[in-house]
Design a protein that fits this description.
Layout: E1 5-11, E2 31-34, E3 41-42, E4 52-55, E5 60-63, E6 75-83, E7 90-94, E8 99-103, E9 108-114, E10 126-132, E11 144-150, E12 156-160, E13 163-168, E14 182-184, E15 196-206, H1 208-215, H2 222-245, H3 247-268, H4 272-290, H5 297-310, H6 319-326, H7 328-336, H8 344-351
Antiparallel strand pairs: 1-15, 2-5, 3-4, 4-15, 5-14, 6-11, 6-15, 7-8, 7-14, 8-9, 9-10, 11-12, 12-13
Helix pairs in contact: 2-3, 2-7, 3-6, 4-5
Amino acid sequence: MIDPWELILHHSYSGTPGVAFDHAPGRASHGRGIDLDTSDFVLDGQTAGSGAVRTRRRGRISVTPTALWGQLSALSVELVFRRENANGSGHLISTTGSFFVGLFSDGELDLGVHTNWHTPGSHLGLLRHSVALSDFGIDQMSWVKAGFVYDGVASVQLYLNGELAKTWNDRPLQPIRPVTTLTIGNDHSGALPFDGLIDDVKIWRPNPNRITHDFLVRILDGGVSDCWLQWGKKFRAGLTALDAADVECAGSLFLLMNQVQAAIASSVTHSAATRQAWEHAVAEYQRLWAQGEVAAIGSVLARLLETLRAEGVPLDQVDAVRELLESRCFRELVDRVPPLDCDPQFLQMLSGEGI
């Protein structure tokens, strides 16, 4: 099994005082202490020898994000922290216009994600959720392990001390704005310090290898595999030719695809029935695709569409989908790309033949 998440940052502060080393496999997100000295790095954190950094006033850890942070369709964050002041508050982790985790003075944990587009129920693309730690029986002055998962499609999940505490799925989600700055224990300017200790910081992105494995890898004979390879080259050539003929088409198609994505995300969050149907369809798609039973996927997709229609969300009548299919740029792209007629199972899946 391929892990669905890829760890892109792991700070523990358990090594040399003053050093913020990234223990994630890529070793690419080391930190730099600002307005901190070696005495702010302590030997014992949540456990003996685990290490921690004390942030207050303008103290903070600054991290320069790598290219891995540029396009985050989803995000998973885990933090281990402890207040040293009963009214201590501030940002535990912060980015400039991408995401943050903070703590209010009354012990309310504050989660925020800035998305690329405005979504219903949000202000300028900001999706924000808050919970009181006391509601979950957590001592305000104890060590807390808080994690949240933003799946980019249907839900935001909050974990406290290893247990799922709350799930929000009341609105469609969008990809996260690119991360240009990352600050631990404060905000970028040093104006929102967390008055306490931070032990572990972990951040994951969706594992691109998992996406490729689940949705692209399947059992193919040599002829069909070669066919896909040649078709892929022709598809890329078609895109290049379309871009040369009309430079605005690529941007138009990108915008239309984003609108379709938002429409699909909205359908997923429409009701408990649509969420369950979507999750079942994804699981069946992955299973059948990996086993090479591609033609059978058509019936899975048909059942999903039937559920959406029954719940009042007919995808084939959604304005964004219709606008994409009827757009001049989309029709021109289709005209420039030859049909994929050498993979009959794939065509049967798309057409729903035999359903």
